[in-house]
Amino acid sequence: MVLRLAAGLLAAFLAFAAGTTKLYLKDGGYHLVREYQVQGERVRFYSIERSDWEEVPLELVDLKRTEAEIKDREEELKDEAKVIAEEERVEREQIEEVASVPREPGVYLITGTELRPIPLAESKVVTSKGRSVLKVISPVPVFSGKATVEIDGEKSKNVVTADRPEFYFRLATPERFGLVRMTAHKKRKTRVVEKWNIVPVVNEIVEERDGVPIFRHQAEEGLYKIWPTDPLKPGEYAVVEFTEGKGNVQVWDFSFQPVGKP
Q1: CA distance 182 to 154
Q2: First CA to last CA across the chain, in angstroms?
Q3: How far apart are CA 221 and CA 170, in angstroms?
Q4: Residues 116-151 pLDDT 10s
Q5: What is the CATH T-level fold of the domain 2-100, as seen in this structure?
Q6: What is the pLDDT averaged over residues 30-34?
Q7: Burial class (CB in 10 A: 0-12, 13-18, 19+), 22
Q8: Is there a contact between 181 and 237 (Cβ–Cβ < 8 Å)?
Q9: Contacts for 214 with CB less than 8 Å, ≥ 6 apart
Q10: Average pLDDT over all residues of the chain
Q11: Domain boundaries of the chain, sorted by first residue
């Protein structure tokens, strides 16, 4: 809406500018005119200032400078029109892209003109006593000490080849989210999403995650477009949604593998 308004104001200004000409005089002055006509030894023009037709001797008019400026301005107006058309095209494409994002909460990878859903991974809390599946809404564990949130497999099946992939993320409820780099636990053949330090008595969790800086743009209520601020290094990553200190984390994993590299 803002872009359309700005483009509309610019278009109105250009239309006004296109209908206004400086009729230069040889003494250095000029008349601001809507149009002019060379009629024999005189130049007839419509004065913007006085809203009426007037005449001036041709010998007093600097036609060469006047015509050169008109030509330059026409080129500028053409360039401005191209800018407006390009801005409108980009805005239309953005509106169409946002409209194509499914209404179901989740993460969608942008691949060209298509969106590819990234499945929600099954996360597990691993402690010294074993592992348990981390539910979508997980209560704070009753144990204290350290734990890790992991997902099975050393590599994700969701392969991304762009070093700055773009995603749409539709939230079910307002939550914090981000992008993290995961580390492999070769012995268990898993990927570690984050580490927990569980505080006894108060049952609070201090999370440690390897966050990746991202840009985020809110496309509409509950829908964000996100992408890394810097190119990714090859490895395992995940978009995560979490409630700080509550042990509630959801994971959408992907593997960045540049084209031509294993």
Answers
A1: 10
A2: 45
A3: 9
A4: 999 999 999 888 776 555 554 455 555 667 889 999
A5: SH3 type barrels. (2.30.30)
A6: 93
A7: middle
A8: yes
A9: 178, 179, 226, 227, 228, 229
A10: 86
A11: 2-100, 106-256
CA distance linking residue 149 with residue 147, whole number of Å = 7
Task: Tell me the pLDDT tens digit for each residue of 107-121.
Answer: 999 998 889 999 999
Across 72-91, average pLDDT: 88
